[in-house]
Amino acid sequence: MRIVLFGCPGAGKGTQAEFIEKRYEIPQVSTGDMLRAAIQAGDEIGQKASALMKAGQLVPDGIMIDLVKARIARPDCERGFLLDGFPRTSAQAVALRENQVTIDALIEIVVPDDRIISRMSGRRVHLASGRSYHIKYNPPKREGLDDITGEPLVQREDDREETVRHRLDVYQEHSAPVIRYYEQWFAQSPEAAPRVMKVDGLGTPEEVRERIFKALGEV
Ligand code: AP5
User: Fold this and answer.
1) What pairs with residue 109 in β-bridges?
2) Checking DSSP bridges between strand 2-6 and strand 81-84, what pairing results, if any?
């Protein structure tokens, strides 16, 4: 199965990706995690991405397309993959199509903007793995520590309220059109285009998970 997980910042993509990864036995390809790893490593991509991410801006399409092309060519993606955070511009969606990367389904997790701010202010992440928690809605077993490794959790630099608001604006301008692109393509040729399925992202993570599994069961 080749799946795209879509939704605004904080919609719960990373949280749901963990469930989908296990259920379908496919790797999560999170472009945000890949960029954060590049920043940690201090490599060329990390140096280019660092200031943009801190400001809540998108990293240039060319960099992102090359990164994802290389990642999904690796052997663990042969049976499928879960794209989390890509494509998030129309140019990235076009690049997937031009490279004949077929996608079975695009799941859009829908959460209103006013719920996003509280989710983000309470988010804590384990940077090495990308696992994310929420101090109230999805707490780790031991406060401030990752469930699997026991390592400390941190707050992401781009989770400050004003940066989150800017990320939501960037999402509306650059990412929302990706849905329209896929819907138009599906209307023209349903046998080739991925199905866009909208899932309500409110409720507990487990409730959202069940909605996503139900939608994927129809593909
Ligand atoms: P990225 O890391 O992809 O961030 P994002 O898309 O903005 O999404 P987030 O990771 O912030 O949120 P999420 O939807 O995964 O939510 P989560 O599950 O953590 O990208 C970061 C940056 O990298 C971008 O701004 C850009 O600069 C760059 N970038 C990445 N990809 C790019 C691309 N393709 N092109 C260009 N630039 C790119 O949940 C959020 C919080 O809510 C957590 O605390 C969680 O525990 C909690 N939560 C989850 N579900 C629920 C629930 N049901 N109820 C209550 N709380 C919940």
Assistant:
1) 199
2) parallel
pLDDT digits (tens, 9 = 90+) for 160-191: 889 999 999 999 999 999 999 999 999 999 99
> Which CATH superfamily groups domain 2-26+79-121+156-216?
P-loop containing nucleotide triphosphate hydrolases (3.40.50.300)
- Other beta carbons less than 10 A from residue 194's beta carbon: 22
Pocket test for ligand 1, best of 138, 161, 174, 204 (most atoms within 8 A of CB): 138
Q: Which residues are CB-neighbours of 189 under 8 A, at least 6 positions away?
A: none
Closest by alpha carbon to 110, among 175, 182, 192, 23?
175
Q: Where are the domains of the chain?
A: 2-26+79-121+156-216
Ligand 1: nearest atom to the Cα of 17:
18
Regarding pTM above 0.90, the answer is yes
